[in-house]
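Students often ask what a 'structure token' actually looks like in practice. Rather than answer in the abstract, let us consider RabGAP-TBC domain-containing protein, a protein of 471 residues. Its sequence is given first.
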Amino acid sequence: MLKGKLKLPDKARRVFPDRLGSLVAGFNDDKDEEIGGYDSVFECGEELEIIHSNGFGSGRASDDVGGGDDDCDKVEEKKKMVDSGLEKWARQKPEKDGVGLVSVKEILAADEKRSDLEYELSQKEINLEKLQRIASTGLPNGGGLRATAWKLLLGYLPPSRDLWEKELIENRQKYAKLKEELLLSPTELTKIKTKVSKSDDQGADGDIDGPLRRHEISQDDHPLSLGKASLWHEYFQHTEIAEQIDRDLQRTHPDMKFFSGDSSFSRKHREAMRNVLLLFAKLNPAICYVQGMNEVLAPIYYVFSTDTDEQNAANAEADSFACFVRLLSDSVDHFCQQLDNSSVGILATLSRLAELLKANDEELWRHLEFTSKVEPQFYAFRWITLLLTQEFNFQSIMRIWDSLLSNPFGVQDMLLRVCCAMLLCIKSRLLNGDFVANLKLLQHYPDIGIEHLLQVARDLSPDTSSYRLSL
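Now compare that with the structural description of the same chain:
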């Protein structure tokens, strides 16, 4: 649990703890720490046709334009093909958040950003401040860049590249051990222990035959045991939680084949996410599993499992667990009902959102607070606890999270800014609405330009870093 009073940090610093703390009992506390990102202009594998100064494509133009009507027709036909090609690559694919023309300048800027990121991630020592600046403007798709950047921003990977392999191996081994201890049924666990014991016995006795031995089952290990110390009692206790997780995972982004459907592909991903959420619940009985955690896990798991590095993709489950824990460490108290009325609970965070809105637009604040009486808990509770994963399409979520994770003052600081910006961007509609209209509007947030929204969030005053919780 996060504890401490609110304070203004002396300087911008990384906010994620260098240790997982009490959230992950069993993980090493002593260690330091893609749909999405920049809107892609081209389909995967598509290349730009070289456009020459004469306006034609990369194919050779006719050597003799005036050589007859046939030649003229061919030239005209070719020019139409080039113009058609230009129109095709100069437009973005339609998205939920709007359609717009993309200039060559923007294309070159995106390419330069990718080059800068690749260069930064290739350094022996990663400059985290520079990485934060790059990520805040949106991470590019492809190449596993977002996966690596998020792991660094969350503190899962240390800045030194030389330590990456060692850290990954250790953390993945620890996760496998936790799964074996906490997710296997007592029967499966007994089989493994028996197999190891039998192997040890054979090694000691060689091939000497002997009388068969029965395996004794203690009262505590019996499935019908009612004792609280029984392994089966603890196992059955989490059955209801597992069923709730399964139901929620079935509803996770139903429009994406990656998560939904009956294919072995989607079932494999749901099973991995189920393991992460159930293990988190068992390790954190005070919080357990709260409906909606599946939505917070989904972006992390998607980004890691689509990493182009095959080994990283194969270990997406273990990496997602560690990063999921680190992400929740900044907002875990929002999921604890007993802390709702405390200084670190969700109601205090909602109050800070109201204060931020009042500081930036008192007219809108008064209208929501006194005229239409739409209180923040009616709409922003979901925005904050689920990190906006229910308000935008998946690609937009990736882009917003780039800014959340790269904020020097922490996820919650930038999250409050984005929530406030969401209100400001639809100010005129809110001022013209009553309670019912405004509540419906805020619970079903309209399409909006994400880059514009994030720019409004960055331009807000005052500096909301003063709201950050001390870790």
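One point worth highlighting: The longest helix spans residues 69-89. Ask yourself how you might have guessed this from the sequence alone, and why that guess would often be unreliable.
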